[in-house]
């Protein structure tokens, strides 16, 4: 069975290769023979639709895709609105002495990739399109031009095009000499220029008319024409992109958005022009639905769904055009003067839009008139509506003259009525003046009586003022005495509060000292008892042995060691008591750099032996107002501990730095030593004679002395540590006393924290 299968597979493979060769051999070749003309090549182009838009050039050049290319049946390849990427393949032979140039006369194509063969047999890619800068085009032109074959090169050249766009995908392709292509473009651009020039003239005339008559319909129509002009230019002409915004391609990203704006403006124009609220009130109420749908299509464009937005806009256009036509017919039946012109213009535009949509969706074939039907419809509509707008100007003029005549008649009637009213009012005023004269005489007599009463009141007021002044003086005296009593009471209350706070603080300090004394007494008794007990035991042992034996020297050596331990304990306790009693407790400005150098000098042998590396960073605060021996002792003990309890597998690295947080100085000492378990040993961390590493050589007094000295200089210390990673000690100088004022400020600049508690001072 296997023997039969192998020949069958070989035959099948040979058949596939022969069919592929025949397919490639059937590729129609485009022969360019006349350099005076341009040749449409649509029917000689082969295409393949990449529905997922994921294929590369290598994919389409080889099987199975290469054999799936289909020959275009239209001189103007048309693929409608699609998200697929269309691959085009064509082969050109140049028989002329001029270069062969490809023209794609569709400025609205967003992404184009042209792959041209090279002399080495490979392909070279060129990317350009509506959404790429004008500088990316091989030839700067509003259309897409590319030099395919050089002059005199008669060998076949196969080219590949990859085209993708979100709007209507047409690929009108022609080849010719560079001169022939430009000559054909001039004729085409001339016709487009005439149409666009007409739109521009209509736009400016409507704007001028609006500023003259202040009629909103002219403004809406001018903006409508401008948006139509942008829509047409981006999709069909490309002149604006070539000359106005060549390096700003994002403006070309929303051509259909300008179409939607144009539709919204034509709805506003129609409503205002036809006065739909008066002539077609029911249809007028349905216009907001179209505004909402147009806004929805715009949102879809910006949300990355251009095909759905385009479909919604086409539906709105198909529904709104007959809707507006019905509105025009309704207004015409109610004797609207310009409704007939509106109906004619909209009918013409509706027919053009219908042709354009049928062409876009593949119902009608591609051609100059079908492709440009929207532009032709817009221009024709503009011309017809121009007559309607001109008639509306005449109507406005007639209405203005009629209104002026009516206003003149009303003015004459009002003047006659005013003259009659003035005569009647004059007679009334004469009689009223006589009454006023009589009333004035009566008022004069009343004024004399009031003057007499006023004089009496003034005398009474003087008496009242004197009484009020006496009362005011008495009130001020009472208030002054009250304020004095209040201040005295406040002072007493403040003194009592201050004294109470002092007593509370003193009691807390006494309780803390009593607790520490109890711990100290217990620890002292324990640590003194051990060497004393050893001395007593050795003394008793000496009584029991022969004085001339060798054991006497051993006992004496042990006695010396016990005595040395007792002396060490007494010396440690003496240092602690000196710190607690505040002996030599004199604050001064201390340089951390100098104190660190002094501590390192004292530890030079240990540092050299351990090869420890010590770094410092006092850029935040180098000078502190503190006690110099204490700060040096703290640095000495922390660095000594870091060296003693270093990790055996790495070189000790000790970092000493300062920071200022909220105006308070912090001193940090960090190492990479053995570390310890904070959760396990945190409660005993700074207690006397506490050791946390069995192999260490310390006595368990260093951290206790550091904590005691830190409290003595107005700071508190904390520790962060991880086993086998290292430790970091942080001293916060938040209770340092204020430096004396006589010291020069430039020598001891300070940082004061918020609140009343003095903070660490920086020199």
TrEMBL record:
Q: What is the top-level taxon of the source organism?
A: Bacteria
Q: EC number(s) in its UniProt entry?
A: 2.7.13.3
Instruction: Please list every transmembrane segment annotated in the UniProt record, as residue ranges.
Output: 192-213, 218-239, 254-274, 286-305, 311-332, 339-360
Catalytic activity annotation: ATP + protein L-histidine = ADP + protein N-phospho-L-histidine
Q: Which InterPro entries match?
A: 7TMR_DISM_rcpt_extracell_dom1, 7TMR_DISM_rcpt_extracell_dom2, HATPase_C_sf, HATPase_dom, His_kinase_dom, HisK_dim/P_dom, HisK_dim/P_sf, Sensor_kinase/Photoreceptor
The UniProt entry, under Pfam families, shows: 7TMR-DISM_7TM, 7TMR-DISMED2, HATPase_c
Query: What stretch or stretches form a coiled coil here?
Result: 393-502
Region (Disordered) location: 737-763
Q: Which CDD domains match?
A: HisKA
Q: What class of enzyme is it?
A: transferase
Q: Which UniProt keywords apply?
A: Coiled coil, Kinase, Membrane, Phosphoprotein, Signal, Transferase, Transmembrane, Transmembrane helix
Its signal peptide is 1-25
Q: Which residues form the Histidine kinase domain?
A: 523-737
A single Gene Ontology molecular function, please? Answer: phosphorelay sensor kinase activity
Indicate what this protein is called per its UniProt record.
histidine kinase
């Amino acid at each position: 069975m296997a023997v039969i299968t192998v020949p069958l597979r070989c035959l099948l493979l040979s058949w596939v290769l022969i069919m592929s060769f025949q397919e490639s051999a059937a590729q129609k070749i485009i022969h360019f023979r006349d350099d005076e003309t341009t040749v449409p090549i649509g029917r000689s182009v082969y295409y393949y639709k990449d529905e997922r838009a994921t294929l590369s050039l290598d994919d389409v050049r080889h099987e199975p895709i290469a054999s799936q290319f289909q020959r275009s049946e239209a001189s103007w390849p048309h693929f409608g609105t699609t998200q697929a990427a269309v691959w085009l393949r064509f082969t050109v032979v140049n028989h002329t002495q001029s270069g062969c140039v490809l023209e794609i006369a569709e400025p609205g194509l967003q992404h184009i990739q042209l792959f041209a063969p090279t002399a080495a047999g490979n392909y070279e890619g060129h990317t350009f399109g509506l959404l790429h800068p004008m500088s990316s085009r091989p030839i700067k032109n509003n259309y897409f031009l590319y030099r395919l074959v050089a002059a005199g090169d008669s060998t076949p050249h196969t080219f590949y095009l990859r085209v993708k766009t979100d709007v209507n995908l047409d690929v009108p392709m022609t080849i010719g000499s560079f001169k022939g292509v430009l000559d054909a473009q001039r004729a085409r651009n001339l016709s487009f220029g005439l149409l666009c020039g007409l739109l521009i003239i209509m736009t400016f005339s409507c704007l001028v008319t609006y500023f003259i008559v202040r009629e909103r319909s002219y403004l809406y129509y001018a903006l409508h024409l401008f948006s139509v002009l942008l829509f047409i230019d981006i999709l069909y002409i490309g002149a604006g992109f070539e000359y106005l915004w060549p390096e700003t391609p994002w403006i070309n990203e929303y051509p259909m958005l300008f179409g939607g704006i144009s539709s919204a403006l034509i709805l506003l124009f129609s409503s205002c022009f036809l006065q739909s609220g008066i002539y077609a009130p029911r249809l007028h109420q349905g216009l907001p639905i179209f505004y909402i749908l147009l806004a929805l299509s715009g949102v879809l464009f910006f949300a990355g769904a251009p095909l759905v937005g385009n479909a919604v806009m086409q539906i709105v256009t198909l529904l709104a055009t007959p809707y507006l036509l019905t509105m025009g017919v309704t207004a015409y039946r109610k004797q609207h003067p310009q409704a007939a012109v509106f109906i004619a213009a909209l009918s013409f535009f509706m027919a053009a839009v219908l042709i354009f949509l049928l062409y876009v969706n593949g119902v009608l074939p591609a051609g100059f008139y079908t492709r440009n039907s929207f532009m032709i419809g817009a221009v024709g509509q503009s011309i017809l509506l121009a007559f309607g707008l001109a008639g509306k100007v005449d109507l406005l003029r007639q209405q203005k003259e009629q209104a002026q005549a009516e206003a003149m008649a009303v003015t004459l009637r009002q003047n006659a009525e005013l003259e009659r009213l003035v005569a009647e009012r004059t007679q009334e005023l004469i009689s009223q003046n006589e009454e006023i004269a009589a009333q004035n005489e009566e008022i004069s007599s009343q004024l004399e009586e009031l003057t007499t009463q006023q004089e009496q009141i003034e005398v009474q007021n003087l008496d009242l003022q004197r009484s009020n002044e006496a009362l005011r003086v008495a009130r001020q005296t009472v208030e002054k005495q009250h304020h004095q009593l209040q201040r005295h009471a406040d002072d007493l209350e403040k003194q009592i509060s201050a004294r109470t706070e002092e007593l509370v603080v003193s009691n807390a300090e006494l309780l803390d000292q009593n607790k520490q004394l109890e711990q100290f007494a217990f620890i002292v008794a324990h640590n003194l008892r051990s060497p004393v007990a050893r001395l007593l035991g050795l003394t008793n042992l000496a009584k029991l042995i022969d004085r001339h034996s060798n054991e006497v020297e051993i006992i004496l050596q042990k006695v010396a060691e016990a005595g040395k331990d007792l002396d060490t304990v007494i010396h440690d306790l003496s240092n602690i008591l000196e710190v607690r009693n505040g002996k030599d407790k004199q604050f001064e400005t201390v340089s951390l750099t100098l104190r660190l150098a002094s501590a390192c000098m004292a530890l030079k042998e240990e540092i050299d032996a351990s090869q420890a590396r010590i770094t410092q960073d006092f850029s935040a605060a180098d000078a502190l107002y503190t006690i110099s021996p204490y700060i040096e002792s703290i640095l000495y003990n922390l660095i000594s501990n870091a060296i003693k309890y270093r990790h055996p597998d790495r070189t000790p690295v000790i970092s000493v730095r300062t920071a200022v947080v909220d105006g308070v100085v912090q001193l940090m000492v960090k190492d990479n030593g053995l570390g310890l378990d904070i959760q396990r040993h945190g409660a005993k961390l700074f207690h006397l004679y506490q050791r946390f590493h069995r192999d260490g050589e310390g006595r368990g007094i260093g951290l206790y002395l550091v904590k005691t000295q830190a409290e003595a200089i107005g700071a508190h210390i904390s520790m962060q540590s991880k086993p086998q990673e290292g430790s970091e000690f942080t001293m916060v100088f938040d209770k340092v006393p204020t430096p004396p004022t006589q010291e020069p400020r430039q020598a001891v600049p300070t940082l004061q924290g918020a609140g009343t508690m003095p903070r660490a001072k920086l020199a």
